[in-house]
Design brief:
Elements lengths: L7 E5 L4 H11 L4 E6 L2 H15 L11 E5 L5 H15 L4 E4 L20 H26 L3 E6 L12 H15 L9 E8 L12 H6 L6 H13 L7 E5 L3 E5 L2 H4 L6 H4 L16 E7 L6 H4 E7 L8 E10 L4 H5 L17 E2 L4 E8 L11 E4 L8 E5 L3 E3 L5 H20 L7 E4 L7 H10 L3 E6 L2 H9 L4 E4 L5 H8 L4 E6 L4 H8 L1 E9 L20 H7 L3 E4 L9 H13 L12 E2 L4 H9 L8 E3 L12
Parallel strand pairs: 1-2, 1-4, 2-3, 4-5, 5-6, 6-7, 17-18, 17-20, 18-19, 20-21, 21-22, 23-24
Antiparallel strand pairs: 7-8, 9-10, 9-12, 11-13, 11-15, 11-24, 13-14, 14-16
Helix pairs in contact: 1-2, 1-7, 3-4, 4-5, 12-13, 12-18
């Protein structure tokens, strides 16, 4: 939602603390605000200030730019009247912030009453009233048929126990889980999120002992809380989200994908989207075309040609026939065409000629051989084996990766997405609260790496070349984008990250690798997933030499790890399901390069385009446009 004048907001508990700060932040943007609070004196003071702020946005208004409504949020009647008064005054509701909250003043073990003035009151104000306010807000937004945002103010005490106030922790934990279950309302344009700061220096925060506050590196600045709230309002992808704010780790969404994966059932196991029935009656051709490497050459165009081959009438036992819809283009296509990936020394690379080209694709199961029970004709599938630059592929059924839909975005999740997901987990051992650098970050795999690192709660730095790429990375949430066409990467890393970078996801090689190695922090881990700058040239791939590498690593207990996706095939389906879940829930964006390549005859163009450095996102080739007319999108 774009914050602009003429929107209206309700803020409960808006007379003091976080509620007051958020009310003023909205007013600074010209938004009409209703302050719902029990304290009339403080509430009217906030309204007076807001009216001054709003004067520069609104003139000759026939209604107040802000108003105070005295209300006990635990009284359902008073609360309904407060919402009705706001709707009558402003004609609708765009933003609702439920910030009213109290602490339990009587120690739990000393409470000799029924809790009505202590722990029960805490639950009523902090949880029951939040549920009631959220219900009122959703009903108001549904009635006006307008998009809206609701923020329930929780607390870090709802994520981990606050031993001194168990009722408070229980109430805030309830707010978090209640809010997360409301994610489906995003389909109606209503997004409900929760804001969970650690201790803030307010009247409520002052009740916390100084020793505990010091152990958490002090009070959270109110500016961080405001920044988090505005992010939850403006970021359309955030629904059912819990934003945890700490001095130690900044703004972090909880649970991280790693935690969420522990309990979430992959959507691909819950439901496979069926292909239209007309595909089940697909008449198979007698022959099909594919791209083969006929001579070893780092120049993909020179090394390959399109070849027509006969399609056998029967499929071998335990094999399936896949009709390819989209094939992915990778930097290592040129390594493959030059024979770099063949290790049989007795035959040599040339002894394998001719061989089929292409690493990854999505399509439709068109026929199955005997003994195949794992997949059915007409279902969507992904393949990650040699030969995907083809109209059809015959592959062992064990190599099939079932997918929900045969979309181009799924192609991006294969080599590019799986490399990022598995490498960061297994080779980089990525945790939260670290600084992660991703090189060539606007490319196919880089876009996944920056988002996964950010989702895990890290500060993300990314390199790219070009303003369009820099803009994309900022949209993906990168904290610091280094556009090497405008800034010197080495200088930026030395000046802004003087203590070094904890994890580096490196795919460029050459001089970039040298800079990254020098920028690595103590205990840092550098994961090499490629070296695209060294793949092409007059003589192809030229290995680099790094004298003194052992000494450098030893001096700071650093690690340089290589990552080759083929050796982690056992994890492909698990991580593909995770990526698709994140994508389907709106937590992961998949950027497809807008340039369209259609048919096998365009594959060489696509490979050269990728190596030109002009691509932004994943480059794919639409093998059969008659079956697939999906427009590339962010």
């Amino acid at each position: 939602m774009e914050l602009k004048p003429c929107l209206s907001a309700i803020v409960t508990g808006g007379a003091s603390g976080i509620g007051k700060a958020l009310s003023l932040a909205l007013a600074e943007r010209g938004i009409f605000v209703s302050i719902i609070d029990f304290s009339e004196e403080k509430g009217k003071q906030v309204v007076a200030y807001i009216e001054k702020q709003n004067a520069k946005f609104h003139k000759d208004l026939k209604f107040p730019s802000a108003m105070f409504i005295r209300c006990d949020v635990t009284d359902t009647g008073e609360l309904s009247s407060a919402f009705a008064k706001h709707l009558e005054t402003y004609g609708g509701l765009d933003i609702c912030i439920n910030s009213a909250g109290i602490a339990t003043l009587v120690p739990f073990h000393k409470d000799q009453t029924d809790g009505s003035n202590s722990w029960r009151r805490t639950l009523n104000v902090n949880l029951i009233a939040v549920i009631q306010c959220t219900l009122q807000a959703i009903q108001a937004m549904q009635a006006s048929k307008k998009a809206g945002v609701i923020i329930n103010v929780g607390s870090a005490a709802g994520l981990y126990p606050l031993y001194g106030d168990p009722a408070y922790s229980a109430s805030k934990g309830g707010v978090i889980m209640f809010t997360r279950t409301l994610r489906p309302y995003k389909h109606q344009g209503i997004r409900v999120n929760t804001l969970c700061p650690e201790f803030v220096e307010t009247d409520l925060g002052s009740l916390v002992g100084s020793k505990m506050v010091s152990s958490l590196e002090g009070f959270i600045p109110m500016e961080m809380v405001i920044k988090g709230a505005l992010e939850l309002i403006t970021d359309e992808t955030k629904a059912g989200s819990c934003l945890w704010i700490t001095n130690r780790r900044g703004l972090e969404y909880w649970p991280t994908p790693i935690e969420e994966a522990k309990y979430r059932v992959p959507s691909s196991k819950l439901k496979r989207t069926s292909i239209p029935t007309y595909l089940l009656d697909l008449k198979l051709p007698q022959s099909f075309e594919k791209i083969v490497v006929h001579t070893l050459n780092h120049n993909f165009r020179a090394a390959t040609r399109i070849m027509r081959t006969t399609l056998g009438m029967s499929i071998k036992r335990n094999h399936v026939l896949v009709k390819i819809l989209y094939a992915g283009v990778n930097a290592s296509d040129v390594n493959f065409s030059s024979g770099r990936y063949f290790t049989d020394k007795s035959r040599g690379p040339a002894g394998n000629l001719p061989f089929d080209a292409g690493f990854e694709a999505v399509g439709i199961i068109s026929a199955v051989g005997e003994g195949v029970n794992s997949v059915k004709v007409g279902t969507a599938a992904a393949v990650m084996t040699f030969g995907s630059y083809a109209e059809f592929m015959i592959v062992p059924s064990k190599f099939i990766l079932p997918v929900a839909r045969p979309d181009p975005e799924v192609v991006a999740m294969l080599t590019s997405g799986l490399t990022a997901s598995i490498a960061l987990e297994k080779a980089a051992h990525m945790d939260s609260g670290q600084t992660v650098l991703v090189t060539a970050a606007a490319g196919g795999t880089g876009q996944f790496a920056v988002q996964l690192a950010k989702l895990a709660g890290n500060k993300v730095v990314a390199t790219c070349g070009g303003e369009d790429k820099a803009m994309l990375l900022k949209k993906l949430g990168v904290d610091r984008v280094i556009n090497y066409k405008k800034e010197n990467i080495k200088d930026v890393l030395k000046k802004e990250f003087s203590k070094g970078v904890d994890i580096i996801y490196e795919s460029v090689g050459g001089e970039m690798f040298d800079m990254c190695l020098n920028a690595l922090a103590i205990y840092g881990r550098l994961v090499v997933i490629g070296m695209i700058s060294q793949y092409q040239g007059e003589h192809g791939w030229k290995p680099a030499h790094y004298p003194g590498l052992c000494e450098k690593l030893l001096a700071k207990s650093q690690t340089v790890a290589g990552f080759f996706l083929v050796q982690y095939s056992r994890l492909w389906q698990q991580h593909l399901d995770k990526l698709f879940n994140l994508y389907s829930s709106g937590n992961l964006k998949v950027n497809m390069d807008p340039r369209r390549f259609v048919g096998l005859q365009s594959v060489a163009d696509a490979v050269e385009y990728l190596h030109s450095g002009k691509s932004i996102g994943k480059v794919v080739v639409c093998i059969d446009p008659s079956f697939s007319q999906v427009v590339a999108k962010l």
